[in-house]
Amino acid sequence: MTFKEYLQTSVSALKRNRSRSVLTILGIVIGILSIILVMSLGKGAQELILSQFSGFGTKSVIVVPGRQFEGPSLKGVDSLKDRDLDSLRNKGNVPHGETVIPMVFGSDVASFESETFKVSVYGASVDLPKVFDIQAEEGSFYTDEDVKGSASVVLIGSKVNEELFPNGNSLGKRIKVKNRSFKVIGILPSKGASSLINFDDGVVMPYTTAQNYITGTKYFDRLLVDVDIEENLDQTVEDVTRTIRDNHNITDPEKDDFQIVNQADLLDTFGTVTTALTYFLVAVAAISLLVGGIGIMNIMLVSVTERTREIGLRKAVGATTRNILMQFLVESVVLTLVGGIVGIICGAVLSFIVYLIIHAMLPALGWKFIFPIGGAFLGIGVSSAIGLIFGVYPARQAAKKSPIEALRYE
Amino acid sequence: MPLIEIKNLTKTYVEGDTETTVLNGVSFEVEKGEFVAIMGPSGSGKSTLLHMIGLLDEPTSGEYKFDGKKGSSFDELAVSKLRNGKFGFIFQSFNLLPKTTVLENVKLPLLYSDVPRSEWDKKALAAIELVGLSHRINHESNELSGGEKQRVAIARALVNDPEIIFADEPTGNLDSKTGKIIMDFIQKLNDEEGHTVMLITHETVTAEHAKRIIRIKDGEIVSDEPVKNRRKATDEYEK
Q1: Are A317 and B112 in contact (CB < 8 Å)?
Q2: In terms of domains, do A272 and A244 share one?
Q3: Taking the alpha carbons of A320, A322, A328, A333 in that order, is the dihedral positive or negative?
Q4: What values do phi and psi take at A186, rounded to 5?
Q5: Tens digit of pLDDT for each residue in A89-114?
Q6: CA-to-CA distance for A207 and A214, rounded, in angstroms?
Q7: Residue range of the domain that includes A96
Q8: 3-state class of B85 per DSSP?
Q9: Considering only CB atoms, which chain A residues are within 8 Å of B76?
Q10: Residues with pLDDT less than 50, chain B
Q11: Same domain, yes or no, for A250 and A118?
């Protein structure tokens, strides 16, 4: 018998027992569907997290003030000062540092006429748009002159713009933050939550301005060092560490009063976490596949018993043991393969529906629909493997039947 | 050389501590072209005998030769080839594939044969025509009457042009009129087509359609003689 003949024989046998075949397939469909759904959503989540770092680049080294084991803190740690900024900007210390951006964080209530809104204040140098993807949508960014002169200028986030200026025309107006008046020179584009820092409800101003009028301190909350090319990242982390230790007279690394966050490492960690989570969920879904596989074996065994006469007849008209074994094995694989393909299609459709729902409810998230092609191949492979593995035992039971036992069976 | 040669054949089933002897030293020969009826009450071992001759079962002891070759010398593949090409089985309960057309049912043995696929339809249609069911080729087996089902089974047994046809109580599930039609077909296979036929039955009337009757009882042959007044099914059901 050719494979085509086995296939035809199996398909017509499965068609004869349509409802049983459909129910058997269902178990596999659900298993594969779950795997595809989990993988699609997992990849979507991963993509979402990774996209928050995009524009922030994998070429950035972040210096955070504070001791390693006290955890990072936004405020109150005063280890990073102007001197550190200058040293880091010195190519002799950090040869691969393209730009060094000092950042100062604060938060206060901003007001315009009768409107008020609690804003996050980000003080930074003019290079901020090089690292974060935030060019002014309207107006312009502040200049080096503004930074040097602690000019009272701000760029406002889209949310701030809506809250303080419900009637528009914010450009050129003066808003009040911490009882000081700042001129609005630019409006930032809406980025939603899809950015590491949510600039939408913040205002951006020269770091000198923020230090003088908002935080009233002389230190920085972050120093971002942008590396020329990614390959030099590790070297730069070393250079930055050495430079700041020299500045702070630290010889014992245990006593570091700062820590370095390596962007690429962070990315790796997030990637690993989401991948691990995805595979964990896939493993959970695989259990339902296992159940589906046992279901296949169960139904195939019932089918073998029910079709004892058919097996006997086939043997009586010349089928060999191998013919019967192959027929039942092919039947089992056809069942699981059809289940796998249907499961992949259903899984893809379902993940697309989930994408539509997430997109409709949280459009700002920027959730993407990703069809896990690898998952689809995995699904086809796994389902056929299940058909083979769980089909062998019933097929052998079928093939073992003696033709007379089978023909006597009522 | 006889087509079938049986010497001192025994068959014993062991179940737990009890040993049941179904056949006890049976010997006979069947020549090519014969029409032999094996007759006996139920439990006499006649079906077991037929199964062994049809290589569906193996004897406990004794010798069986088909076409001069020892039955014990055939391996699984050779047995399958014989069942497929040389033997044609007709069963009491028809054993058609359910929800499958007449044509597909008749083609079943071809699936396991060396006959090229292109000739399958031709061969199957010829066999169906022989049993007079050409008008029902695309009907599913469930839609047929008992007599029609048995005629499909006969066509299936004939499709590979077998040397010998084994019919195990072929009229057992049919009313007497339909039974006669079936017996008419079986007689024609012997008289006109030249097939050797071995028929199993417990009814004398049915057995008398054969040319020779072997009577067995309790696993032993009690008589083996030619039929004196052979019944012709054609005459009977046309009356």
Answers
A1: yes
A2: no
A3: negative
A4: -165, 155
A5: 888 888 988 889 999 998 899 999 88
A6: 10
A7: 67-256
A8: helix
A9: 320-321
A10: none
A11: yes
